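ok here's Type 4 fimbrial biogenesis protein PilX N-terminal domain-containing protein:
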Amino acid sequence: MRRQDGAALIVGLIMLLLITLAVTAGFTLSNTNLKSVGNMQSRNEAVAASNRAIEEVAASLLLPGVDGSPSLAAPQATASRVDIDNDGTTDYRVDIAAPTCVRATKSAGTGGGGAIGPGGIGGGASTAGSGLNALPDQYNSVWDISTTVTHAASGTVTSVRQGVRALLSKAQFEALCS
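and the structure:
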């Protein structure tokens, strides 16, 4: 009988090792991609929670008083708890900084705001076609709303900023944006 040298065994073990390394690398790459997709989903949920809170703030920005007089109180910082998946538990806490008036321009009858706003910022906000050109004591204002969103389970934080446009009376402009 012919004696075997064991070359087939060594080649087989090397091939088995290479296949094991390839499978391990595939699992690692798959796991990394899964984590990346999960992080993007969490970020998108955080941005959605922030947008939901910003919409609530924008809807309540400068609401008139019960007697119909314009609000002269500066908007306050608020916090909102958001249940993004409607399972009854808070998923995100959204801290909303007090909205700040960034710019305000007087509505002009010619369709362009030519007045200089706070900090010397010029106009450029158009009122053409908005029905605002007949209101001489109205001001187009832009408000900055900044939020910080914290995920309840993981503690990760996402920040979102958005601008909101609001129409102000002369009294509101003088009280809030000058």
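+1. Confidence is low (pLDDT under 50) at residues 110-127.
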